[in-house]
Amino acid sequence: MLGLLTTLAVCGCGNHTAPATQEGSILRRGLGGEPASLDPSAAADTFSVQVVQDLYEGLLREAANGETEPAVATAWTLDASGTTYSFKLRSSARWSNGEPVRAQNFVTAWQRVVDPKTGSSVSNDLRPIAGAAEIMSGKAPPSSLGVVAVNDNELLVKLSHPTPYFPQLLAHSSTFPVYSDASARSHSAKDWVSNGAYVLADWRPGSRLDLTKNEQYWDRDRVQIQKVQYQIAPDQYVQFAAYRAGQLDLTDTIPPNALSSLQAEHPSEVVIAPYSAVAYYGLNMTAPAFAKNPKLRIALGMAIDRRRIVDALAAGQVEAFGFVPPGIWNYNPAKIEWENLPDSEREAEAKRLYRESGYSIERPLHLQLLFNSNPAIKQTATLVAAMWHEQLGVQTTLTDEEFRVFLESRKDKKRWDVVRLSWDADYNDASNFLDIFRSDSANNDTGYSSTSFDAALNRAANTLDPDARRVLLESAEKLMLSDAPAIPLYFYVSKHLVKPYVLGLTPNSFDRIRSQSLSLAAR
Questions:
Q1: Do 380 and 309 meet the contact criterion of CB atoms below 8 Å apart?
Q2: Is 168 helix (H, G, I), strand (E, B) or coil?
Q3: Buried-most residue among 154, 274, 293, 392 (CB within 10 A)?
Q4: Which pTM was predicted?
Q5: b/e 443-481 (16+ beta carbons within 10 angstroms → b)
Q6: pLDDT 10s digits, 427-438
């Protein structure tokens, strides 16, 4: 795991009214987009995962600092081969309807995730489990997955190969149990059954989600906040205004143009920390312009001045010339070969490759750039379109969509040539970032397909020696970067405004803040 992250404080602005007591306390959180789903098997976006981790709990959970700790599982053993885990489940673990959480709930949930009929976007997370790859490719039934309920309180998991990050994975929402398909997919609070610290009380799409404390939760005595209200606000300026007006206690973003003044004037409420996530543009590898034209793909990447982007965003982002963020365990991130070229040489090379790929000022490339509605994301898209036009003469049409609409549109390659995407770590391993470019990955929006890349990842997955495994993963990243199916833009930092009376927030590299880790101080 990554070490504890430093914080920069900032912002005592606005109304500081807090509940006078913990009893009946409400935590009001900003959420930068509508969750696509609260079903653990379908929660693939940041907003969904944030809420799901309040509603559900896996075998392990993330502590406030991002480290894993026991949850539904109280203890576990790993055999000498490093491939077979035995988990002892907590007898006091309950669903919100009072029924016990059983080992079979995990078996059923995990089989459902890898079943191709489910179409789960997080299925690749379970690839290390024996049989998962064959099931996902349709070559074996879900029942052949290497997970067995020995009895109600004992779960046996067989891996296809030793997986150092597997305990971290068990704290991610893709491995959470579900009570039933119906309850997991329901938008109705009356049908909701979950096993985490909170249960869904109300969901008003486009407005808010209300959660209440799960009185059946095994660790309920340490859950101090009674109610959590997620206020959906895709516009970061709307969140900021609500925070200043005392209508939010915790935001998940900070407007770039407000950051410097907040840091200067209110050094107690802004929390900024490194975040294992990358923003990038995916190129439609099935589009005629890109399919067999690596020079054009590389030219578009070279024409972008990443320094201009991070300067415009002004929130501590770091220019990305590779895909895997810095700080990932046992890994030396690869870099694009031309990273250190002076701007004049980089721009000249971009123009040369553009001409050689069959385009010119007289015969410009026309692109459709798709992104989700967000001021900072739109600002970046506008900048990139301007750079492409200035350097190469590319004509770019910008299309922004509401987040949930965008999540569907990105799967339809007829709607875009370039799509704005991001990936944040599910667990602390380079494979989590690289696996999304596998030919058969549900997250491979670009359509990139390379037998050499897939083979390097497969060899890494079956390599026990950590140094040899690292070399294979690094070679895979270098290969993908040279093929250029995607254009890395920048690595993130997490940014939150936090009222002084919100206690217990410790930033971590995953930027996942569980409400049960927090408390509210009385004024």
A1: yes
A2: helix
A3: 392
A4: 0.88
A5: bbbbbbbbeebbebbebbbebeeeeebbbbbbbbbbbbb
A6: 999 999 999 999
